[in-house]
């Protein structure tokens, strides 16, 4: 290398840093995980209600999911006012959701009490939405996986009621079923998706107690 080349190297401007579409957003303070199973087979089933709530939040905030290298999930970052929110859809089956949640919580330094899991709840009437922190998993394998991998049950749950099956239908058929177009059950679940998305935004802005007071009164 000539002296001239060396001098050119000293004064050459470094390449500009490539900006991320997330650079202008606040750092993630909350992680919102919609529980569900990937694939067309499970789309729009009652069991995938968590996915649908994340989709509603993506629509509201005009965001799109992207893959994360080394993590079995797709994520999007958005802001609810000045509060950063990480939206997550696991790419694993529901009973392995914790494999996506735990590494993301570590990477983004999000404590367990700022992880929000949105899931279907048999023990609530169809369309009813309730919020709580901690407690047992009521046999829900997705919650069991999250609790195991986070090492705690003390995270936020948004429970979206799908009701118990009627007319002797098996629980598995009810959970993995799709309410008919134009049915009351379909209307109730669509309302619940919007209510659960509202709950996420209220939690991000004002905390869990405020969301409980507002959502539980609906």
UniProtKB/TrEMBL annotation:
GO terms for biological process: protein quality control for misfolded or incompletely synthesized proteins; rescue of stalled ribosome. The record marks 37 as: Discriminates between blocked and unblocked aminoacyl-tRNA. Keywords: Cytoplasm, Hydrolase, RNA-binding, tRNA-binding. Catalyzes the release of premature peptidyl moieties from peptidyl-tRNA molecules trapped in stalled 50S ribosomal subunits, and thus maintains levels of free tRNAs and 50S ribosomes. Hydrolyzes ribosome-free peptidyl-tRNAs (with 1 or more amino acids incorporated), which drop off the ribosome during protein synthesis, or as a result of ribosome stalling. It comes from the Bacteria. HAMAP family: Pept_tRNA_hydro_bact (MF_00083). This is Peptidyl-tRNA hydrolase. TRNA binds at residues 42, 93, 95, 141. The keyword Phosphoprotein does not apply. Monomer. Its EC number is 3.1.1.29. One of its GO terms (molecular function) is tRNA binding. GO terms for cellular component: cytoplasm. It is found in: Cytoplasm. The active site is at residue 47. Gene3D superfamilies: Peptidyl-tRNA hydrolase. Belongs to the PTH family. InterPro entries: Pept_tRNA_hydro, Pept_tRNA_hydro_CS, Pept_tRNA_hydro_sf. It catalyses: an N-acyl-L-alpha-aminoacyl-tRNA + H2O = an N-acyl-L-amino acid + a tRNA + H(+). It is an enzyme of class 3 (hydrolase). The record marks 120 as: Stabilizes the basic form of H active site to accept a proton. SUPFAM superfamilies: Peptidyl-tRNA hydrolase-like. NCBIfam families: pth. It holds the Pfam family Pept_tRNA_hydro.
């Amino acid at each position: 290398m000539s002296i001239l080349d060396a001098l050119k190297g000293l004064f050459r401007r470094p390449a500009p840093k490539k900006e991320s579409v997330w650079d202008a957003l606040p750092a993630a303070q909350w992680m919102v995980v919609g529980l569900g199973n990937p694939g067309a087979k499970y789309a729009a089933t009652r069991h995938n209600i968590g996915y649908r709530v994340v989709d509603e939040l993506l629509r509201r905030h005009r965001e799109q999911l992207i893959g994360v290298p080394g993590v079995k999930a797709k994520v999007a970052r958005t802001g609810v006012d000045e509060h950063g929110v990480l939206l997550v859809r696991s790419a694993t089956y529901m009973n392995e959701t914790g494999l996506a949640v735990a590494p993301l919580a570590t990477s983004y330094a999000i404590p367990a009490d700022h992880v929000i899991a949105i899931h279907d709840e048999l023990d609530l009437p169809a369309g009813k939405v309730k919020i709580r922190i901690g407690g047992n998993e009521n046999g829900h394998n997705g919650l069991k996986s999250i609790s195991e991998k986070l090492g705690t049950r003390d995270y936020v749950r948004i429970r979206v009621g799908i009701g118990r099956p009627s007319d002797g239908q098996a629980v598995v058929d009810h959970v993995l079923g799709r309410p008919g177009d134009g049915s009351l059950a379909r209307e109730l679940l669509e309302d619940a998706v919007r209510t659960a998305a509202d709950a996420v935004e209220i939690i991000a802005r004002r905390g869990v107690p405020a969301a409980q007071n507002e959502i539980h009164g609906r």
